[in-house]
């Protein structure tokens, strides 16, 4: 059910039922009990139990620490013979090791029932929030609104999501009034992409398309399109072979109706000083655009030491040493505005212990419902990847890369006497499999955590597992009661950076990322460690967190989530948890 995926909720139906509490800890509100079967089916597939979390090749970290690489290699080769060697026809070999997983302590998750009005408001609020949304989220929101709620779009909703505007225009012929957004829609109808990029690939796609845009150009108005003709001239001219009369007319009209593009100083915030006469740009920006600009200033305040500053009159100057002036000034300027517009005084927030959320600048940058850059802290940490064959891949490989070397299936299983360890290689997951890296308390080297799709689709599904590491023993790999999160997501490409271990303040810190490693094939430590690790270390070692931001905006952080206005427990996060903070401001 799409409403469960987005909001942990279903549409309310009148009921005399009592709340239903399952053995797994799911609490279903009375007016949601009508969907009990669908709810239980959905979450039974989502939640991993203690055995799921320990479907590793080896059963314990003590086995890894006490064994030589040669001993582990013999068992590794035996496993390969039983899988790849038999074309997956033989019984899969797994070492016979005793597993003793602790009983799972019950945690509760409430499944809510929203009225039609409440569900409609939540869906529209996301579309109007201005945050960039993933395509699947957009499709689900539009489906819920139009199919389940029978909502009819009017064009007056003030939707601020560019892709949503295009989809609504395509589905319901409700066209945007802004000429740039209308051109985006025409490009979408022509090529299937909504990106307005003046590159050769898009120009050729327009020329090769058989779509005739004459009717759309004319119903919108050639004078209005002439306002932006010069700005997007290569794209308009790509239509000339199919629509010569109309394109020539728009070109002529542009001499009268052209409107120059005004430069938005928020796009140049790291090298252009903001002034009071720029306030209207902030007033018209989405909160998420402001957070992006704020983050850019903050990271430079705590990192790079040389900048080229460009003043609004076009002059530039370079200053080394006191490199923070423009970024500090703009950071203060934007933060002051945020405090005035999004004053959270009197509001209480609950954040889970040892979790600092990244800034929610774009849902496209989320991992599940968690913003990219969210940090998890612990004395020890275990980071893993769980998958099933049915999710698109049989063989995934987690690995760690740092200046000391690589740890993974084709390298060491144990670095620095157990400070960083690998759980073993699983090559077949008909019923689920997991591979882990374990960062012990004395590990001190920043380490990239990578996933490689060895056999399967490059966009396969998996869960990133993040947990506190227990004392090393022969009992298990992951204590289910120490789990932070098991986040469902998809591989970005064949090689994906899951995140980064950043030892900090005597503790381990894992930064959740899940983005592509680039076009190069990374098989060793030199390329990634020298380039990517350094860049990511600077970017993510000391970023501004959402937790810190809401305090700056006047909120109070409390430890009792039941009494909070905003509960950011990891298990209760919804698609609109972060956007709700800035709603109706």
Quick overview:
By secondary structure, the protein is of the alpha+beta class.
Write the layout of secondary structure elements.
Blueprint: H1 2-7, E1 9-11, E2 20-21, E3 26-28, H2 36-46, H3 61-66, H4 69-82, E4 109-114, H5 116-128, H6 135-148, H7 162-172, H8 179-191, H9 200-208, H10 214-220, H11 222-226, H12 233-237, H13 244-257, H14 279-284, H15 287-301, E5 306-310, E6 316-320, H16 325-341, E7 348-350, E8 355-356, E9 366-367, E10 370-371, E11 375-378, E12 381-387, E13 393-402, E14 405-407, E15 414-415, E16 420-422, E17 433-439, E18 447-456, E19 461-468, E20 483-490, E21 495-501, E22 508-516, H17 526-540, H18 546-552, E23 556-557, E24 566-567
Parallel strand pairs: 1-4, 3-4, 7-23, 7-24
Antiparallel strand pairs: 2-3, 5-6, 8-11, 9-10, 11-22, 12-17, 12-19, 13-14, 13-18, 15-16, 16-17, 18-21, 19-20, 21-22
Helix pairs in contact: 5-6, 7-8, 15-16
């Amino acid at each position: 059910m799409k409403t469960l995926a987005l909001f942990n909720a279903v549409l309310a139906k009148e009921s005399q039922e009592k709340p239903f509490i399952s053995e797994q800890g799911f609490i279903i509100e009375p007016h949601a009990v009508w969907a009990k079967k669908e709810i239980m089916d959905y979450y039974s597939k989502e939640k991993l139990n203690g055995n799921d979390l320990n479907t590793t090749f080896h059963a314990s970290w003590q086995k890894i620490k006490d064994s030589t690489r040669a001993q582990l290699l013999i068992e590794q080769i035996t496993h390969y013979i039983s899988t790849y060697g038999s074309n997956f026809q033989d019984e899969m070999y797994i070492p016979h090791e005793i597993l003793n997983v602790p009983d799972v302590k019950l945690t509760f998750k409430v499944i809510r029932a929203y009225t039609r009005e409440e569900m409609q408001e939540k869906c529209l609020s996301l579309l109007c929030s201005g945050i960039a949304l993933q395509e699947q989220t957009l499709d689900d929101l539009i489906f819920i609104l139009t199919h389940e709620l029978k909502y009819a779009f009017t064009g007056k909703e003030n939707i601020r999501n560019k892709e949503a505007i295009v989809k609504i225009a395509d589905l319901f012929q409700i066209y945007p009034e802004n000429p740039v957004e209308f051109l985006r829609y025409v490009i979408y109808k022509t090529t299937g992409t909504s990106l307005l990029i003046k590159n050769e690939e898009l120009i050729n796609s327009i020329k090769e398309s058989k779509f005739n845009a004459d009717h759309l150009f004319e119903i919108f108005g050639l004078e209005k399109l002439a306002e932006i003709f010069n700005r997007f001239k290569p794209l308009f001219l790509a239509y000339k072979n199919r629509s010569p009369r109309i394109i020539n007319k728009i070109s002529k009209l542009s001499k009268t109706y052209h409107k120059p593009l005004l430069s938005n100083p928020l796009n140049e915030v790291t090298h252009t000083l903001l002034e009071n006469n720029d306030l209207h740009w902030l007033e018209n920006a989405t909160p998420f655009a402001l957070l992006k600009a704020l983050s850019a200033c903050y990271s430079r305040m705590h990192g790079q030491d040389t900048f080229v500053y460009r003043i609004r009159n076009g002059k530039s100057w370079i200053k080394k040493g006191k490199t923070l002036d423009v970024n500090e000034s703009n950071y203060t300027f934007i933060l002051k505005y945020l405090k005035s517009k999004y004053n959270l005084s009197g509001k209480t927030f609950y954040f889970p212990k040892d979790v600092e959320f990244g800034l929610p600048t774009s849902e496209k940058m989320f991992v599940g419902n968690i913003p990219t850059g969210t940090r998890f802290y612990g004395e020890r940490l275990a980071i893993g990847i769980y998958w099933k064959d049915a999710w698109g891949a049989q063989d995934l490989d987690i690995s760690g890369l740092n200046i000391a070397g690589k740890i993974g299936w084709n390298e060491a299983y144990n670095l620095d006497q157990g400070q960083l360890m690998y759980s073993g290689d699983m090559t077949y997951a008909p019923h689920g499999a997991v591979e882990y890296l374990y960062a012990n308390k004395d590990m001190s080297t920043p380490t990239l955590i990578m996933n490689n799709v060895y056999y399967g689709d490059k966009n396969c599904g998996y869960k990133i597992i993040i947990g506190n590491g227990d004392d090393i023993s022969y009992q298990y790999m992951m204590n289910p009661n120490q789990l932070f999160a098991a986040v469902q997501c998809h591989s970005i490409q064949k090689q994906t950076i899951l995140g980064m271990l950043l030892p900090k303040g005597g503790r381990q810190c894992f930064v959740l990322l899940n983005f592509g490693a680039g076009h190069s094939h990374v098989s060793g430590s030199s390329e990634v460690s020298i380039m990517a690790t350094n860049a990511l270390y600077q970017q993510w070692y000391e970023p501004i967190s959402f937790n810190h931001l809401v305090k700056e905006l006047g909120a109070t952080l409390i430890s009792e989530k039941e009494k909070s206005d905003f509960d950011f427990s990891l298990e209760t996060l919804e698609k609109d948890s972060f956007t709700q903070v800035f709603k109706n401001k």
